[in-house]
Specification:
The chain is of the alpha+beta class. The protein is built from 15 helices and 15 strands. It has an eight-stranded antiparallel beta barrel with strand order 1-2-3-4-5-9-10-11. A four-stranded mixed beta sheet has the order 12-15-14-13, covered by helices on one side. Helix 8 packs across helix 10 (441-457), helix 11 runs antiparallel to helix 12 and helix 14 (584-595) runs antiparallel to helix 15.
Length: 616
Amino acid sequence: MNKALQVLVILTISALGVAAQNSDMYYIDNRGRDALLAPRIGVGAGVFTFFGDVNDNNYAHIFTSTYGVELLASANLSRYFDVDLKAIYGNITINERTLTGRNLNFKSETFIGSAGISYNFNHLYKKPGIIQPFIGVGVAFINFDSKSDMVDANGNAYFYWADGSIRSLAESDPLADSESTPVLQRDYTYETDLRDANQDGLGKYDQFTFSIPVTLGADFKMGKRLSAKLSAGFYYTFTDLMDDISEEGVGIREGNSRNDMFLFSSLSVSYSIGVGNSYTKSAKTKYYEEVDFYAMQMADSDGDGVNDFKDLCAMTPAGAKVDENGCPKDSDQDVIADYRDDEDSTKVGNVVDLRGVTLTDEQMLASYADSLATERARMHHVYPSGILSKRAALTGEDSTKLAIMMLDIQNQVESAGEFDELFEEISKEVFSKAPSKASSVEDVYESIDKVYKKMVQEKAISPTQPLAITKGENISTTIPPEFVDADYNADGLITADEVMRVIEDVLEGASPLSISQLYNLIDFYHEYMEGAKAIDFGGTMAVYLDGTLNILENYKKDGLSDTERFLANKFKEVDFNGDGKLTPNEVNEMIARFKAGKSSYSEEKIYELIDLFFED
């Protein structure tokens, strides 16, 4: 038996070594397709490890018990599950030897038949590999016939003495002495049937039991048909008599109440006899049976060393260096592949041309030259007042940047927001109500909620995010002091229209903001206010910003224009009567106070007041 196991192990290791050396080999798993229910048969050998009332002196070592052989048969239920049949034959041999306790031994001729289901963890893998772990559970029946070596070949019973020797008389026998009592040697012939000996009065007990085996192991695929399996099956039995020791015994023969258990660790080789047979093939499989799927899987059309199935960049030019995904390498990360990059080690962040060469500022401005003239002409149609012709002196770079920014913001003004249609329907709903209800925050809130839910339910709108509807004071992002003047209507928002108006004022020299401050304002708008809208629902104001529509309870319509409200907000000290509107008399009064030295305004502030008031 030992030689048979050694031969099996050597053959299996040799086959695995050949498979490992063939780097092109990849196991094509047909589970659930061609090979559904295709049978596999195998043979193997292993060792028993017994866990019961009688224990081997070296029981802590897993390979201390005797050997067994197994026959296997299995079939695929799906890509993930197999049905397994197994027959095992062997002898479980245990020798318990102590100097002060009991000395028992037995050899149980054991036959096991089992059926179960195993799972191979293919859910966790994108494709099956050469090594596939598995876990299984099933049911088994076990037939055992236990015998013990109690006498030698001459019929002399064994008596175990405290000095470790085996004698023909008990050590307590009056006729026994260490000098004259013969020493015996065990012949390891298990001649005494333990059930027939009936040492505990149990009679003819059953030598048949059931078990629930749990198996762990791994399959080693060595080809389309051949595989090796290393496994360990733990068998919990429903008997405590495999070793003929139980809790029914007395004295040294008294055992515990636990049932006997054992482990069978084995190595086997299996061969599939169903893969490729015509009866296992579906019509679809037969249609494709001439296709060489393996060749397709290993194909490398562009010859870059990465298989087509993994290649994310097809048709890579010959000779180009590629990464693990088959894409041309870009060492300096300038978005131009190395094979057509004329400039190595481009600085990160530089703008390059189609050959990977860094563009200078002059080259970039020159590239905008033709299109910039066209865009400026378009801006005259957007702003017929001719703001570009009246602008203050700017550098070419600032002129280009502002023109592009204005186009970007103007596109935002002209483009429809995802809730514009909703706001239009809400306005119709509110304006159809009586004036008292149109000016009621609660009534407007109910109208908004009703129209919004209806349009979403009817799929009239499909927002990318839900609309949050709130009511309360204006809680918009606080505008920094240096940008307060950009809030022309003093509603707490800086909208795209207001940013465009500030840009126009800067270009015409009518704004105190510098170019750098203007850039900061535009950055602030993009970060905090982009898409913001102030909406008048029949006298009730609401502010929309970043997915939230807030109905303002603290806003009262004052009938002022945006310009009047802007001036009154900017020059609050000039509004002497506190009506929220500046008049010529109030402006003249402030001028008179300045001349008399009774105003806190500087000369520059007075000129700004005069320019803005009388111009607007």
